[in-house]
Amino acid sequence: MTSPILRRTLTTAAAAGGTAALILAGAGAASAHVGVTPDKTSASSYALLTFAIPHGCEESATTKVAITLPAELNDAQPTVNPNWTAEKVTEQLAEPKKLADGSSITKRTSQIVYTAKTPLAHDLRDTLVLSVKLPDAAGTTLNFPTMQTCEVGQTDWSEIAKDGQDPHSLKAPAPSITITEAAASDGHGATATAATHTEQAASVTDSGADARSWAGLGAGVAGLVLGGLALLRSGARRKAADSTK
Predict the structure, then answer these.
(1) What residues does 115 pair with on adjacent strands?
(2) Of 46, 99, 150, 242, which residue is 20 to 30 A from 125 by alpha carbon distance?
(3) CB under 8 Å to 67, separation ≥6 — which residues?
(4) pLDDT for position 242
(5) Which residue has the higher pLDDT, 121 or 164?
(6) Hey, what's the signal peptide range on this chain (predicted)?
(7) pTM for this model (two decimals)
(8) DSSP state, 169?
(9) DSSP class per residue in 39-74
């Protein structure tokens, strides 16, 4: 007959396993699209945007990725990736644009085009990182329509959700981020979020935010399993002690 302690342990482990499975399934679904993960989103901050290229077009290898910058951004600095060459595409503005420091510009970077030195196989992934200065526009969503060109075919990740529409319902959504309120200052000109530097360093690696999420999930599940085993051993010892009395 199963003891109450064992039943509780098995029930807890089953619930944890089910939750982990749902999280893993959601993570897998989310990674199916070309997406962007910012290391920060606060208004007027400098941010690293990590674009994930999870697969090719159908079964074809990726040869080029063209990221279009929203009108709110004037420029972007590509981070070096040894697997790709990067090129800035500029556009002439219809009229000069005045900047916060009082100066004006007549051109802006409209697109960053990455070309693969060797086509990225369909079953491999890579990340492309841009450094940008976010505008002072909390609450604004910035969309980055991205054209993924493959050896055969291409995918235009440019669909933008309408008001009230779930972006996950789109077949080929454009990568996007939403700007948040400016971060509080610690009095020394630095933001109060000490984790920023760690996140920034991690986001330029090949693993990016996805790897951090998977690692955290794995550690949580492992902790639940170890806790369940410890509870089982404790119950067994108490049962053995009671039988000797």
Answers:
(1) 64, 85
(2) 46
(3) 51, 76, 111, 112, 113, 114, 128, 130, 144, 146, 175
(4) 57
(5) 121
(6) 1-32
(7) 0.65
(8) G
(9) S--BTT-EEEEEEEE---BTTBPEEEEEEEPPTT--
**Interacting residues of 189 by C-beta distance below 8 A, sequence separation 6+:** none
DSSP per position, 188-213: SSSBS-TTHHHHHHHHTSSSHHHHHH
42 contacts 180 by C-beta, under 8 angstroms = yes
CB 180 within 8 A of CB 196: no
Structural domain boundaries in the chain: 1-30+207-245, 36-192
Q: How far does CA 16 lie from the centroid of its chain?
A: 25
C-beta of residue 96 within 8 angstroms of C-beta of residue 107 = no
Report the alpha-carbon distance of residue 44 to residue 179 in Å, rounded: 9
For 74, the token pair is: 């004037």
pLDDT surpassing 60 at residue 177: yes
- CA 152 distance to own-chain centroid: 27
Largest CA distance in the chain: 92
Reading the block at residue 65, the tokens are 């990725």
Q: Which residue has the tokens 């960053």?
A: 112
Residue 124 and residue 88 in contact, taking contact as beta carbons nearer than 8 Å:
no
pLDDT tens figures, 219-244: 554 555 455 555 555 555 565 555 55
